[in-house]
Amino acid sequence: MAVNILTNTISSQNQVTLPKALREALDLEPGDVVSWVIEQGKAVLVPLNRQKTDPVEELMGSAKKVYKKYGGAKGVIEQNRQDWED
Questions:
Q1: Is 33 in contact with 49 (CB distance < 8 Å)?
Q2: Is the model's pTM score more than 0.85?
Q3: 3-state SS class at 63
């Protein structure tokens, strides 16, 4: 496992900006929740909310794929009719 060392400075308001490489490596976005764990004098950043999509949006995305595959709603209906007749 490769080790990347990233460095930054604590601001006057005691804030730290997460480096882009870290955000990308952990797939972090604004609004994500993280936890800080202190272990043997080190701080470990642990992402908490790993689910990036709303389950409803995910299902809607699946429906869009089906519609695209069969050429829209009429295509889906025709495919269902053929499946029922078989």
A1: yes
A2: no
A3: helix
Separation CA 67–CA 73 (nearest Å): 6
- Measured in whole angstroms, the distance separating CA 60 from the mean position of its chain's CA atoms is 16
- Domains, the chain: 1-49 (2.10.260.10), 55-85 (no CATH)
pLDDT tens-digit map of 8-46: 999 999 999 999 988 888 888 888 888 999 988 988 888
Q: Strand, helix or coil at 45?
A: strand
Structure tokens that stand for 49 in this block: 């909310």
CA dist 23 → 6, 17, 32, 53, 60 (Å) = 11, 10, 10, 17, 27
Residues present in the chain in total: 86
Residues 6+ apart with CB under 8 A from 42: none
**Farthest-apart Cα atoms in the chain, separation:** 71
Alpha-carbon distances of 10 from 24, 41, 42, rounded to whole Å: 21, 17, 16
